[in-house]
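User: Structure tokens for this complex, please. No commentary.
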Amino acid sequence: MRYRTLVLTFTTMAFALGAGAYAQAPSTTPPAGNAQNGKKIFASYGCYQCHGYEAQGGPGARLAPRPIAFAAFSRYVRQPTGEMPPYTVKVVSDKELADIYAFLQSISQPPAVKSIPLLNN
Amino acid sequence: MKRPKKEPLNRRGFLKGAAAGAAALVAKSTEAKAQDLQTARPATPLPSARALAAETEPVSTDVEVLTADHPGSDFMLDVIKSLGFEYIAANPGSSFRALHESIVNYGGNKSPELLTCCHEESSVGMAEGYAKVEGKPLAVMAHSTVGLQHAAMAIYNAYAARQPVFIILGNTIDVATRRPGVEWYHSAQDAAAMVRDYSKWDDLPISLTHFAESAVRGYKIAMTPPRGPVVLVADGDLQETPVKDPARLHIPKLTLAAPPAGDPAAVAEVAKLLVAAENPVLLGGQASRTAEGMRLLVELAELLQAPVSGGKFPSRHPLNQQAGGLIRNADVIVGLEVQDFWGTVNNYRDQLERSSRSLTKKDAKLVTITANDLYLKSNYQDFQRYTEVNVAIAADAETTLPSLIEACKRLVTGDRRRVFDERRKKLEATHAQSLEQARTAATYAWDASPISTARLGAELWEVIKDKDWASVGGNVPRLWNAEKHYQTLASGGAAGLGGTLPASVGAALAHRKYGRFCVSIQTDGDFMYAPGVIWTAAHHRIPLLSVMHNNRAYHQEVMHIQRMANRHQRGITNAGIGTTITDPNIDYATIARGLGVHGEGPITDPKDLGPALRRAVAAVQKGEPAVVDVVTQPR
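Assistant:
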């Protein structure tokens, strides 16, 4: 029952990050990261709370597959312009951020809508 | 009933009679036997002078009256029956023991039938859910101080949801007739005061005539928009004191007040704005109280080819649209019984410095039509932030819709109709695109464990789509085709956790007589407040498929703690302390089985979900409740 407020308040973040999920921005080479560790801290640092364990989105934007460019990703995480709480270097190091990004890059494309009968009725 | 030789002074009064003498004789005989044993047991003391005096006093000729044929509670039940209640929900309490007994014996436990509840929050929560389906109140009995304290949150939920609930509160005012000890803890001089800030009306009748008038008046008040809970105190003495002359008592006739419709001039002004608008938006809010209300909203929307966001509106109707972009582009926004209009037309940012900005165009015209402008209280802040609007109509929106439709019809020209038709085409495209996006979004994490909420919704839709279904709890998934008024539960409420589960049972109870298949998406945190209501569903054979959205947390609170931890830069791994429901994980299926209902789960693999749901559906179709515990993604 407490969903509504949160869904509304996270709308801005969804717009801000969600766009990248649909159209990849021009990218620079992201720093090398450990996807396995990224998956672990994606959960332990609470990213999953808004974005889901598979980064599929929820109150927060869908982040993967095809995440936005690392520079934009990093900038938003450190200094969000929407509802997302800021993750400063004191709580997520640059190395950890790279690991999270590597995890997002490792997520594969979902099955097509047409291949899932339950979504076609 | 044997008539007393004398009138009783009160319900615990005595009339002298032969019984006392008989009791004395029995006592004397016992005493004689005791004396015979004295030689064998020399330590036994002799009777005291006081005992001897009591036994040798003259035999009484009066009788203590111990029975009554016509307690006040019988008449109270006559009054309750006259109001047409189907059910009366209660956790038993001595302060309404006479009324309870009248219901099950004098009234034959029919109309109303007593619903056994394990918590007053469940009783009132059920009443809220029932009212959202039936459009009329369920009666609830609550036990004076402690029972009302238990009920309080649910009453506030019903108040904020503008739903009628009729609460009868046992209490004993007269200190001379209260039993010593516990009954004093369970009595108050102004029992309803505790919930007065968030109930619509209350009274403390001091006679049966007073009770009858206030019951009928209370029912009428509860049902007049904006609707709300009312509390009627049923004094214990009034319940238990015999009625001297029942024939002299009268039950007033109930005539419900016609809901207030909008002022014609103001309605005409709104019609002018709507017809002239290029991008009007209708916010559905709680406008559709009834099926007729939904029909009227569809008629207005189709007349103008205007999008509708929120409220009860067929989910696959092309004019059913998401609010977001609509609000930004709108030139006229009409809020129909919208509880938080300000929050709909403004964006609010919850960062260290809280800020907000308007989402609307500068020259957009804002209109509210709501009965909430007719009734407001001060203390509890359920009325939301004040919104600057161009037209405010203090009236019931559903009742105002017919005149608004007629006023619009009078203004629509051929030119405007062509504009409307073009708008319709665009909205049809937007609607189709939105549905396709929702389908695509559902594919992400489709096979994930924990199970995605989109997968849960799709699996559930598969097993109910061919039934006459009704959602009675949780959000209706975006891809479901909800086209009938009863298929979604009215929105609104104070968002108090613990309210969804009892409301779903109460709503399922209301749907039962229509043979509808009821389904609820039930969160785990809410479930654990008062899970005993599941037993109530089992006991009263209320069919309900309750599918757990079990994210093993009070998840919104996890996010709030996370936000604070981020803001304070103090580490972000402890947000789960005090907010998650793990270690041990709760086995809801086992709880369900222990409460007498069909239980499935915990389901963690999405491939297991469909079969588990089909087994649960089979149980529900036999008339039982069922709980399917699905371990889900957070949202």
